[in-house]
Amino acid sequence: MSTDRMTPTSAFADDTHWEHPHPRRGFFTDTSICIGCKACEVACKEWNRNPVDSDYEILGSSYDNTGGLGADTWRHVAFIEQSQERIEEARESGRALVNLGMPRVGPPAPSPAPASTGCACGPAAPADDAAGSGCACSGPSSATTAPATAGCGSADGCGCSSGGAGGAAAGTAEGGSPVLDTPDFRWLMSSDVCKHCTHAGCLDVCPTGALFRTEFGTVVVQEDICNGCGTCVAGCPFGVIERRDDGLVEPKTQRGTPPMPDTVKVPQDGIAQKCTLCYDRMKEDQTPACAQACPTTSIKYGERETMLESAQQRVAQLHEQGRTEARLYGANPKDGVGGTGSIFLLLDEPEVYGLPPDPRVPTADLPRMYRRAGAAVLGMLALGAAAFTVGDRR
Amino acid sequence: MSVSPYDSYRPPEEPRRRRRRRNRPPGGGAFRRGGGDGSREVAMVPEPEFTSYYGRPIVKAPPWDSKIATYLFLGGLSGGSAILALGGYLTDRSALRRNGRLAALTAAGLGGVALVADLGRPERFLHMMRTFKPTSPMSMGSWVLATFSTNAGVAAAVEVDRMTGERLPLGPLRPVLHAAELPTSVAAGLLGAPMATYTAMLLSDTSVPTWHEMHGHLAFVFASSASLASGGLMMLTSPVSQTAPARFFAVAGVAGELVAMRVMKNAMDPLTVEPLEQGRPGTWLEWSERLSIAGGLGALLGGRRRWVAAASGAALMASSALTRFGVFWGGKESVKDPKYTVVPQRNRLEKRRAAGITDDSITTAG
Amino acid sequence: MSRFSPLEWPVIRQLRTGDRTGRSSAVQSQHTREITARTATADRVVQSICPYCAVGCGQKVYVKDEKVIQIEGDPDSPISRGRLCPKGSASEQLVNSPGRQTRVLYRAPGASDWQPLERETAIDMIADRFIEARRRGWQDADEQGRPLRRTMGIASLGGATLDNEENYLIKKLFTAAGAVQIENQARI
Amino acid sequence: MANADCIVIQGSNMAECHPVGFQWVTEAKARGARVIHVDPRFTRTSAVADKHLPIRAGSDIVLLGALINHVLSNDLWFHDYVLHYTNAATLISEDFEDAEDLDGLFSGYDPETGTYHLKSWGYQTEDEGEGHQADEQRNKGDEERAKAGGQQYGSGGAPVGAGKLVRDETLQHPRTVFQILKRHFARYTPEMVQETCGIAVADFEYLARSVTENSGRDRTTCFAYAVGWTQHTLGAQFIRTASILQLLLGNMGRPGGGIMALRGHATIQGSTDIPTLFNLLPGYLPMPSVTAQTFDDYVDGIRTTTQKGYWADARAYSVNLLKSWWGDAATAENDWAYDYIPRINGAHGTYQTLMAMLKDQVDGYFLLGQNPAVGSANGRLQRMGMSHLKWLVVRDLNMIESATWWKDGPEIASGELKTEDIDTEVFFMPAATHVEKSGSFTQTQRLVQWRHQAVAPPGEAQSELEFFYELGQRIRARVADSDDPRDRPLQDLTWDYPLTEDGEPDAEAVLAEINGQFLTGPRAGEPLSSYTQMTDDGSTAGGCWIYTGIYADGVNRAAMRVPGQQQDEIASQWAWAWPANRRILYNRASADPQGRPWSERKKLVWWDPEKKTWTGKDNPDFPLDREPGSTPDPQQGGPAALAGDDPFIMQADGKGWLFAPKGMMDGPLPTHYEPQESPVDNPVYAQQQNPARIMFPREDNLSAPSGDAPGTDVYPFMFTTYRLTEHHTAGGMSRWLPYLSELQPEMFCEISPELAELKGLEPYGWATIVSPRSAIEVKVLVTDRMTPLTVGGKTIHQIGLPYHWGAGTDAVVTGDGANDLLGITLDPNVQIQNFKTGSCDIRPGRRPQGAARDELVREYQRRAGLTIMTGMERITDPERELNEDPLRARDSGDVAGRSTAYRPGQDATEQEADK
Fold first, then answer.
1. Which of B123, B124, B130, B143 to mutate to test the interface with C (most CBs of C within 10 A)?
2. Which residues of A, range 229-258, sit inside 8 Å of B by Cβ?
3. A353 neighbors B52 (Cβ within 8 angstroms)
4. pLDDT tens digits, residue range C109-126?
5. Which of A58, A126, A334, B209 is most buried by its number of CB atoms within 10 A?
6. CATH number for the domain formed by residue range(s) B66-338
7. What is the mean pLDDT of residues A221-225?
8. Please, which residues 257-316 of chain B have a Cβ atom closer than 8 Å to chain A?
9. Predicted ipTM?
10. What's the pTM?
């Protein structure tokens, strides 16, 4: 069994077989414009009728009182308060990324076109537009510095070449320098979600086929199949999926009053649960609940290729403004999970947000495990044989 | 938290509905962690510095409890017993054969019950047979367990029939059953080894840091542990006259486990070894090692004396159980602190970068 | 597993189709194949406006079997473009909330708990008390003899979450009855 | 807003309170706009802004005043705009004396009543010569208006004298508004900002640069505010200051400019347009006061026939309202049934009503979707007030605290009240949600949007429309046979509304009545399509003139829903905006005096010289055929008198008011006073607090001393209350929802690490906050987002308190209410209370329970030596401020209102009696 068959390679179609596949869908979560309103959390719970995930107590993590992703919380907004020193470090670590020979953009370009030119893109983009609004502007330099390895046609998608947005926000509007003074303080907010990995650990280790790769390239649990073995929980390198261990789906209250009789009951206790990227809505060509609700288009949804382009343009734009702390997470098809369906733009190291810095799908090591286990099996059998031959003489 | 002089006047609060929320340590800000909480035993490696999200875990532990740890032990015991039963069958050691077969079936049966009981939806245990997934050790293990149990079951049935003087109401099936004795014994014996080791893959094919770090060697540890456990069981249950192969099996297992465990720990990221060496898992593994050495020595030196053999056998079985519990719970401990996830990952990332591989990071500048 | 057909056994499907490793089409269940969004099967969709703040975001209300099954942002709205805040996103729960009251309740003077009351009776009782309070609080003129023609026995607070039409009727009725102490959140 | 080049969000936490509205800020920012957030706390808005300036709560006027000073002294104002579109060149009466001269007071202050005589603030008019005020006649109605608060003027502004105003186009005359403004704000320097607001000079310069660089022909700056401004004793003046700045910079009536009010309730705008307010009738017509005994008096109090603009037709609007309500019973002979309307003779706001309740003067109280036990200031007093009622009707979705205080309120816990002793009857009536009834909401930009009913209300729940319709039916039935004249208004009331299939009154029929119709003539029965069709002869009727046109041609325009994607950015085919579906008010100002757009980039409406009409992207807010250069005779009055460059068509002189000759109760120019409770002395003037603020000195509404007064150290910290994204006001619509409750489950406070250190407060542990009114317990969030400010040489610690929680048992999450800490002090203009600041102490641990809680509060009061007089002085330093005979203007008869506020001596005895 070769690696290639055990775990899909970068070509996404490798672990899928569909008569009529659709282009792969995904999220782009731009945390630089997240306002931490948690509309995504609520919209997600309401649509999926997930139970409340809380003891109704302050958790002691800024405004975050749901803790993290889990069986009941499929979108989770993280809140991180940082001092100036930490911002400098983030900026530095981001610069270090740029300086590596990795997919990268060039150094901040000198201030581009005058701001008054305005920007032709963005404003009227509807909420479900893949590209979202306001993010499609990038400076002229981005075309030449588009990532070489990421597989995005670097030139297209850059419909708007005005650098007005970048220049104005960074320095003074009239062609000032893009050098940023570091604020004393910042409050990071970021909406986390299932990554819908190209190589999905949960999917690989699921014994029943409850987890499957959909025709949209997402990873979904089938509630009628899962028997709650829990293997997937440990299989996920991001700690996303979890077994729901209590009850039905209507939201609980502390008062013990019986729920409204008409509340739909779906018995989903005891099975693994996670974001489905709203598989049901996607089938009807609707936007997932979280992306639909997001007030600032921090959560964008669309074909993954488009998401990737948006993400790359946005990070280039931020770098032009001197905000070198910006970086993408999950955009690289060569990473340990083959790139994620949900791409994030982060403003600090991943572990600050509770994300692993170098996740790796556990099944990547499966061939080796098979070889070693095979050797152990043979060894044990040989030992057994020896016991009754050599050992017998004693 | 009670600092007000008035607190003592408060009536006891109504207990709030408590829901177990896993992985929630008391937090206090996005803190830079300077390592452990001070109560831990001596750290093996310098404590790393990194910023976590309020100290919350990154990966999640599977929702498995001691039932699964028990199964790990029983599966090994069962697989090893089947091998010894096959040997006993082929070399005509009737007690070894009989006890091995019965042990194999009983352990597999109990283990299966433990497995099913641990499911979130036990009534759906048959879904395990729904698909055949090479990427899923649990799927492969289910197939192994099912085939192994069937074969071990037939072999055990023959044994029971024989023990009851062929009084089982088998009717015309008896000849068929007895004809199947050889093929099923061989099959059970051969499947006994994967039965004893696949659980290593089950654990290490996860993102649980300590388990995954073990993936190169855990199979050897578990195979050895299964050998010494089943050898021990036979020493305990069978007359010494027939248990020489079992003693050999056990002693080799002890040696194998000692070596494999050492090698494994050396190959792991040092930080991820920590959960195996502290707390309860650490104690268990320590005792496991002591018991296995004692049992091994007992088998080697006093295996021909019945009571020494029995005591050594029991020690070996206990050692195996402790090994499985130690590894199991050590792994579960390793998800509680994000450092076990983050630091090894950062280390390997740095290592790759140092080696000039810079194009495979999940974090990119564009 | 109830309608088990050997050909539909995923292991066989793995072999029959190209999904050899059993990770996509081969393991999809009938149930999953048939999933649809509940918004797609709603009996009707009604356009509405979010009841929380004054931004006035558009909402689409999905109704099935005379129950609200989903409320989400209305992408047609030029105000909100389909987006909603957490409160707006929770408005389905506001409608179907487990804690919502749907019975008229009455607390008698000195009573320690509620008792149920017929709505018709309640409105009649309120009308009687309204008339009585109006009478008791009536002022014909101020101290200088200038006509006031009003009652100070009745007051009201609220309106910023009510409809314009409702506020109109409230103001109209209270004014005609001579009640002037009418206030709402606009001043709070 | 998306068109702005710079957005200053001040006094609002926009991203948290209006996340969806904030998308336009995000979009403007993506286009390159600079976003600056000025707020005491670093909030989620600050997190995505370009810069956050921490400010001491309540010092906004100093910051804005300094910006005005910066603009004026550096000649950065928009000359063409200011000269033509504002009253900068107008001369003010020579009796006027500024706060500069009187160290904090304006001329005309009456220390006895705590109110101003408005006379000396008037324009100077030509006909009567210098030194005379305009038109005494017009001032008659002022007294009651002052009592009721300036909000009466609504969008109309106040009438000013007619006649030719004296202008000096060179702006050099010392009594021009421009020069007065210059002198008035000279004191507001960057150093004063640092001293008062705690904002560093460099930060102020950044703000000033951002605002001024992004204003002018080509660029616009937008201000956004919310309750952070209104809920102060200076609320209305905060907004005035921003208006002055925006007028000087030419940012009013233009795309991407203006001052945006961000309001917290679905139709809080609608509930003032069609008001459930004591002092207003629909369409901002004032509630008749006792002095306006005849209809003519009433109408003259609203307008002069010769004033410019649309308010000149107030008579027609009033007649139409009366015709709508009393139909055929309203005739020219009986003054259109004007006498059917009750008269007000002072403020009858919710806090005055509360005082009346406490004196057992109110029998019955309706709470309609409102939770004053949690949401109003001094929650304890609110609950105590309700316990004095005979009956209470609570209409809500959930069992709110205001419906259950008699069994689980804090006063029951403390033993102050005993359930069995409370004789209040309580009716809980379940209400219908927004999807269970049809009707319209008016959102913050005056857009009226229709909601269609989706389902029937569950159980016994019903809409307010149905409830009040039925209640009205039954009340009318009970008085049907009465011959008491006081019942005539009820008997003659038009109260026949068609019912829908479900038996509910048809909301659309009510909307049609609001819109109005022709009663006689060839078009009888047809809906009106514009308020210009309204007549004062009884041939038309319409319930709210500003809404006329919403039902034009019998079509419910509020229900128009052409998708936004199919329209331009103005989206005029989505719902309907009053007046006349106009999206940007005063948009004539978006073109220069000659009618050309100020710039291509900021083009909105303009004069089309070919077609001789105003045209553009928006519906022009101006007489369509009025040429830019025309100068009609101002004596004509009404819209006809508007000159071609009078864009502010609702103001009596057609100009934007830099100086408010009328309409404000506490000064024609904004002036900084300290909040009711402040840790510092007013750095700007000797006068400490707003001298015209409305106070309620009571034993249970005590104030902490301010500045250096003894006892200040007992309550050394400031608190400010606010909302969170996850909850809605008093929680009636959020704390019962598990999904929202889990997001912010517990009452907490936000404090700086420095304060935590100082007081030994443990992160996420408990703390008790004590104010002169109450003590509450909260969880502690220690965060760098709170910054201690250095003000007046002192370190000021601010404590942030969300106010969504209340003590009860029914909600999913409960907690102590922050509003219990607040005292009641009101803004004199709009009677909105100060919610934003107060003095307190904070201590570790939970609060005591039961009676011990009150004991703790009293112990603090004793230590601070509080009396009901503390902080209640009107004039801080009479010697410095009242350098002339304070009563000199008294004989003029032009007295601005005698409020229900405290007067020394008198209320003190009342107070005794209360106890």
1. B130
2. 229-231, 233-246, 252, 254
3. no
4. 999 999 999 999 999 999
5. B209
6. 1.20.1630.10
7. 94
8. none
9. 0.90
10. 0.89
